[in-house]
Amino acid sequence: MEDNGLKDGNGLTNGNGLTNGNGLTNGNGLTNGNGLKDGKGVGGYSKIELESRKRKPVRTSIIVILVALLLGGGCIYYLNDNSSNRDEIKIDGNAGDWASIDIKELVTESSNSNIDLEAVATFEDEVYLSILTVTKEPLFFSPEGHTLRIFIDTDES
Questions:
Q1: Exposure class string for 46-74: b at 16+ Cβ within 10 A, else e
Q2: With contact defined as beta carbons under 8 Å apart, do 135 and 101 qualify?
């Protein structure tokens, strides 16, 4: 062997200067195989405690705002409703509110007195057309039918 002042002739341990033949600890250059001390901090969630976002105040605020809008809208509707201040026709079975309106008396004879009309009247306001019919006997004498149908010819044909 030549003597150049180096052990084994080249100055390297095991002939190549590397530990375990490749210069790496445990064969891969990583501590415990993952490069991190005891494997902490790899994958998973952070170990730092985070405050959860509380959504309850947001939901409560939204509900309060919606209820306030509904109540406010209802109040505005009733404040702008002028019909409660006027004398108007009320559908209540009492014909007393028709006293100031012209009522046309009819003279007809029918064998069925609960459809024999004695008088009729009409009243029209901005929204409704009200029609009064007076019969000799109660209109809905039997429990089977409770509908009065009045057809109006609007095209006059």
A1: eeeeeeeeeeeeeeeeeeeeeeeeeeeee
A2: no
What is the per-residue pLDDT for 85? 45
Pairing of strands 117-124, 129-135: antiparallel
Domain ranges of the chain: 7-39, 51-81, 88-157
Dist CA 5 CA 18 (whole Å): 19
Would you give the distance in Å from CA 2 to the centre of its chain? 93
Give the pTM: 0.37
Encoded tokens for 56 = 């309850």
Selection from 130, 34, 151 nearest residue 88 by Cα: 130
Residue type for 91, please?
I
pLDDT, averaged per 10 consecutive residues of the chain (157 residues), comes to 56 56 55 54 63 78 93 83 60 78 80 76 84 78 69 81
108 within 8 A of 119, measured Cβ to Cβ: no
The reported pLDDT for the residue numbered 40 is 57
